[in-house]
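FW: tagging you since you asked about this chain on Friday. Here's the raw sequence from the shared folder, copied in full. Didn't touch anything.
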Amino acid sequence: MAVDTAPATFPVEWKNPEDAQLTWFRDEMHFPEPLTPLTLTLLLETFDEGNPLACDELAMPMSGLLYGWFNGYAYNMTRPVPETEMPARMEQNRQVMSERMDNLRVLWDEHYLQRVVELTDKIDSLDLEHAPTGDLAARLAEMREALVELWHIHFLVVFPKLGCGERFFGMYQAVTRSPDETAAYRCLQGFPNKSVEAGKALWELSCLAAEDEAVRAAVTGGNLEALEGSPFKEALDRYLDEYGRRANGIELAFPLWLETPEFVLGLMRSYLTGERGDPDIEHATLVEERDRLIAAALEQVSGTDLEDPFRGALQSAQAAWPLEEDHAFYIDQRALAAVRLQLLGLGRRLAAEGKLAGAEDVWFLTYEELAATEAAGEDMTDRAVARKREREAQRALEAPPFLGAPPTGDPDPGLEKFFGKAGPPELDGKVLRGSPASAGRVTGTARVIERIDQLDRVQAGDILVCRSTTPPWTPIFGSIAALVTDTGGVLSHGAIVAREYRLPAVVGTKIGTRVVVDGQTITVDGERGEVLLAPS
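HL: got it, structure written out here
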């Protein structure tokens, strides 16, 4: 029998009584804040359709990683495969996943990416703002179908990519017996990906700004108007056209960088005020470390029966590893940017028709309400306003780490490497422990950031302390000294990118943003997975 684990301050209404028998884990890493109704009913519901399609195609040991929401907060659960079907399913998984892992890069380059671009272009062409009367519901349905397919492709990439990493991790550990859990993954670092590419392009833009004192002053002062007509502004526009179709999180209400260029100027300030070196020089050091680790492992395995499997696992993992960032760039960012811009156009249409007070109120309607808006023809202003108030009230709630049945059994090690270890936080006096994510030790000023739009507070050389990071955070890695996160494990975004930038990092502390004081001097030991809350 399930135990109601929700605190009195976080009341839960189960849509289906059977859901209370399951364990729902809060996904604070991807969704730290309560989501808007349109994000919940369009993005999460299509996710729940696309993910099981990938699970079935790959014969995963679960039938779906599914989301629900409670008081606006996103929770997920793994839907199990019936026990009687599991032996046959696992045999099929071994065959299918082996082939997909070995060929993932080719599949992405020759099939998946092309289809993602086609679906994004399709969404771009819907023109919801000016759709003929009677066509709106059909065009929204096209968008929804495209999103289901995009999430399907998303997991056809993510699951084999993680499989490649874990296969090589097992081979590397068998050969080296390394006590350093990050060593295997450092053998996969230093290859081009879209997130690092965007960070380097921003650094190059800051170098251009530094050449002209007037431009430099306008950038550091956030004065976009003063840049009009300058060669720098033209370069900034090119940057935004290529890299600005991203929001600061998976939430349709979040504006894109393309819509808020001032945010990008804020990111550049940390480059202009710091002393971060040339990314190409730092990249060469990263590659040197990677090659040294690989050479040492190959020396141990040379001439043994493990040499060929080791080399094969390494090759496929190195080919697949950049897709962690690349798939996010094209699906989680560019495709969802197209969705946002289309729906914002629909918001303008509804506001012009007197059905909403403003275009941005569209986020506070559900997908079903939007699909029925032509037929219903009702004024939804009051409904949107009430839901905005409700979301503000939800922000004050303390969402528990899980709901429903208490967790039982051993945690899934793969999920822990991604989402972070289960259990209570580890704070021993002045030592906060998490997962070691990227080696190195540094002492500096902590900058506690609750949301990405506060990144303009980060100074060059600060230690970034935040809940989690996603690809839009990547450019700031070029100016910080270290990273501490509340969520995530050794395969989380923050951990992977910290290794790419050779920054000490401790992830999954659970309470870092609550116990570290903004401006406090702390020491981050990325090898031991410790944060010292007083100078060492």
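FW: The CA atoms of residues 209 and 232 lie 7 Å apart.
HL: agreed, and The chain has a mean pLDDT of 92.
FW: great, closing this out.
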